[in-house]
Amino acid sequence: PLIPTPEYLSRLNPEQRRAIETTEGPLLILAGAGTGKTRVLTTRFAHLLLTGRAYPSQILAVTFTNKAAREMRERVGAILGEPAEGLWLGTFHAICARMLRRHAEYVGLTSGFNILDTDDQLRLLKQIMEPFRLDTKRWPPNQLMGIIQRWKDRGLTPDRVTPAEDTDFANGHALAIYRAYQLRLRELNTCDFGDLMLHMVEILRSQPNVLAQYHRIFRYILVDEYQDTNTVQYLWLRLLAKREHGPSNIACVGDDDQSIYSWRGAEVENILRFEKDFPGAAVVRLEQNYRSTAQILAAAAGLIAHNEGRLGKTLRPGREDAQGEKVQIIGVRDSDEEARIVGGAIERLQADGHPLSEMAILMRAGFQTRPFEERLMTIGVPYRIVGGLRFYERAEIRDCLAYMRVLSQPSDDLAFERIINVPKRGVGAVAVQKLHGLARTLPGPLTAAVLTQIEQGTLKGKSKEALTSLMEAFQRAKATLETEGQVVAVEQLLEDSGYLQMWRDDRSVEAPGRLDNIRELLRAIGEFATLEGFLEHVALVMDTESETTDDKVSLMTLHGSKGLEFDTVFLPGWEEGVFPSQRSLDEGGNRALEEERRLAYVGLTRARLRAIVVHAASRRIYANWQASMPSRFIEEIPSEYVQIGGQSVESRRQAAAAPSMFASGPFTSTRPSGMPQTPRPRITDVQPQANVPVGATVFHQKFGEGTVIAVDGSRLEINFENGGIKRVMANFVEIRS
Ligand code: ATP
Ligand code: MG
């Protein structure tokens, strides 16, 4: 060729180059994990600029997270040799917010509109619901919020909700409330998160001049993680890309096997529709994986092959270090040992010169970080939580800690203030102020002031009732503490004070995760002899905020790990009911399970050199131990790519003559033994249904005798003779008949 290939293209394979050099017309890049999709998109961005096809401001590039946007900005900057500025590069929401500021008047807002956070959103919705006089127990506002969000995810303004899309929720008033909610938002010159997309789609649909303006601006559109776009995002892209005259220069990259956000309304079908929407679209498949070793890749491929209805893709290992290590499967006794083993492996890798920043622990759910955080703090390994807070910094955990601090130390005013109106008890800021005033005139703490006021009858109405019952809850818990120990006492306190119920009533997507965190907290309390011992431990670990080093182990959820890569990836908690999650098993059918499997696939394919899967033989549920079975995903990985190892510490000590790989150098031995011989779960018997028949009479330590009225997984709904209907863990009851 006359013109030499520019440097930035020469390092790419022919398909990747085709995906970059096919600049005009619609393009779909469909490829498996680690094939360079994001890299192609980034290079394509630079290529468009360097070949003079577009100015930086003429390219719209959509990423899935702000982190990805930042990385892409840096990568483009590196290729260009200067910082890239003024780009339309960001997440769907960030870009839409910027657009909407320019056209806010079309939807009745001004450019200075506010964006509500989820708390405000809910508060507003509750106000809107009031005149409808609904029983909020039956129709929780949070649930309605969810319905409205799903409508917004699908691009449905109130006017566009057809009878077929409507719901019976809220006695059939859901749509009317949605309409009123939208009106009120407009009056307040605000919008919620979902409105950013919804309004922009509405504007582009109804204002041809605005649409034409963007058609002029955006000569090229680039979209990463296309498999996770929802309908409203898809509509927005289609509007911007499809023009009457001229080609649609839209390039989307995606992998149907990594679609993990259907619970947030993502529609993997958008990929399938692409060729229909954009006739003549070029489709490029990238098959060379540059990230992972052949072993890891084959393991992940074997696993995902268990899903049906895939588009099907070839994935070839591309790394020169060819074979590499097999995926390690480690069976441990419990979560303590799990954290110890992972911590130990991290230390050994570090001692061998591997940077911590190249190691990650990926878990199914946020609550699972806790034992690892504690272990890493204990052994002094710095870590960061990606996309979330450290366990003890999470709001619900801080609330619970505040309850516990008051229980252990009634004079802890700070803690008491935090929870005096959480959950909402109708004790307003003014009442708290008044109590404070009183506390200052009296010698004792705030709790004492409250008691005094109750006795003297100075508190009135709702505040009096609420605070009386709160103080009683503390007193009862104090008594329980003496007789039954801290776990039962704290659980009772959180129950009696209405704190747990608050989260149970909460229908937001985060609420179940928060309850899981609290359960995890109760588990942690059980590991200490006393409540004070535990609180002291927390105070100490919270203090060891790691130094300002950048070399840290990353802890995150599998969802948060999308698009990232690490040399070493630890995948703990591969047990039935943890991963796949209990919720996905409860749902039954294949849909949820397949999404879990895609999540497992995402997890394995984050690893460049090593993937270590861990499962524990038992987990502590409150004070009890529950046996757990290895995840079905473990068995679904073809055995030739797996190495079983890491038996429990005890058995390893006994077999000291033949040390396992985890006792010696990292991941070198090939001794195929040690996996606990738990019977393999079959699909039919993995739902850990409590073995208690409906109708049985049972006894519960705290609530006494009752009759089982429903069984939901490991939980029972029981009608207690003296306590009404409650949901309790099955292993907390004794069967009487
Ligand atoms: P995911 O599906 O996980 O998002 P991806 O397809 O976006 O993966 P990238 O993150 O773009 O993959 O690339 C994976 C790794 O392979 C990166 O480290 C990237 O730099 C490297 N890579 C991609 N293409 C090449 C190539 N032609 N030569 C060498 N390395 C490459
Ligand atoms: Mg990517």
Automatic annotation (TrEMBL):
Domain called UvrD-like helicase C-terminal: residue spans: 294-563
Binding site for ATP: A31, G32, A33, G34, T35, G36, K37, T38
InterPro entries per record: DExx_box_DNA_helicase_dom_sf, DNA_helicase_UvrD-like_C, DNA_helicase_UvrD/REP, P-loop_NTPase, UvrD-like_ATP-bd
Top EC class, one word: isomerase
GO molecular function, one term: helicase activity
Family from the record: Belongs to the helicase family. UvrD subfamily.
Protein's recorded name: DNA 3'-5' helicase
Taxonomic lineage of the native organism: Bacteria, Pseudomonadati, Pseudomonadota, Alphaproteobacteria, Acetobacterales
